[in-house]
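Protocol step 4 of 6: record predicted structures for both targets in the notebook before any analysis. Target 1:
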Amino acid sequence: MKNKQTNISIFSKGDPTGQPVIFVHGFPYDHHMWDKIIDELSGEYYCITYDVRGLGASPPGDGQFTIETFVDDLLGIIEELQLEKPVLAGLSMGGYISLRAIEKSEHKFKALILCDSKSEADNNQAKLKRAQAINIINQKDLKTFLNEFIPSCFAEESIEKLGKEYDRVFERALKNSPLGVKGCLLAMAGRTDTTGYLEKINLPALVVCGEKDTLSPPPVMRGLQEKIKNSSFVLVPAAGHMTPIESPEIVVREMRKFLKKL
């Protein structure tokens, strides 16, 4: 389905009368990154995901995005679907969106799951890296950028293990609008820092990190988890930044344990 106001593509699976769980994907991917998780959890929970503005089947519009835009999109989907206290799960950029949504409207959510993400805003070095990525897309093409970026999201052994599935992830990312990808880079570079709010979060939280994640390393994610009062930490062995794709069986097991406690 499409959101009536934003034209964002929304996907759901499971019983609409069950506990809703809304999944927010990472950059530069789409809702399919959650497929294996949702296939397993939709028998017990009402699972909703969507393509973030400018990615997947959601149009880029003018390509001028902020994290606030993405948060408004998320809250708009919750309102349109009339979701009652959904659990919010976000990975990487989806985690940035989730943390800001919690900071803005914590009362609308039941719990938080963060996978391979961080609360800190970009420092100058990271902002320059985003700018360089935009330059690569402008001066060369999206594929050149993805050839550099996507391998960094996976543990080296995962790329070999996933084989054709990794190729499908790459091909889906390549179908993204270059304008949408650049808009997301700008939004991430300009995001606010949510670290100060972590200690104020009253929701139960699960923090999941790949052992070999180089983009949101375990010490960073462990530090984030320790600031959230009612939270637990799971380290996924031999996985990189894309834990739901690299080790879906572990991520499903830990999410299910967490959700059953709520």
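Target 2:
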Amino acid sequence: MKRLLGIILLIFSTLLVLPAWSMDLAPDRLVDKTVQEVIEIIHKDEDLKNGNKEKMLDLIETKILPHFNFTRMTQLAMGQHWSAAAPEQQNKLVDEFRTLLVRTYSNALSSYHDETIKVNPIASLGDRVETTVRTIVVQGQGKQPVPIDYSMEKKPDGWKVYDVTVGGVSLVTNYRGSFNSQVRKGGVEGLLKTLSDKNKSLEGKK
């Protein structure tokens, strides 16, 4: 799942920080337009293919983060415990969760091996401000295709991802279980410490 989530992040990595066209495109077209650009960058950039971690992290920090709503992702992952956190704790939780996702999946970005990503068009959005963009990752010979769904919401500066479901497993739901367990054991501060310690350990892995 981590490897496929790396591909997910990489799909959005060629979007420059809030380009004008990304604000106007429908969510399915936004995803579809970037797929070919991403594939081209993977094939041309030897550093990315060779797993240059610093370059990968810089790529994520500068080009991916603007297209994900990490506040909503964190809120959903916290579930009922979100309201128990003070505003300062909520801000720290968002920062730590964002860092965790970036560092956990940065290594997976170099694992692309000619998978084909097919985006299913959305028939009509109407006035909806939330939707799901459904895609299929077609892997190598003998491997089953993997469905990847993006839960997206329309914001003033374009469509944002707030959850990703890989093969029926929601990223937010997957973390909610572990977050709830940590909060029950040590409260919100206990969860913050766990996330901070995990991020420090990931940072040390060069």
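Step 5 preliminary note on target 2. Residues 13-18 have pLDDT under 50 and may be disordered. The first strand starts at residue 116 and ends at 119.
Proceed to step 6 after PI sign-off.
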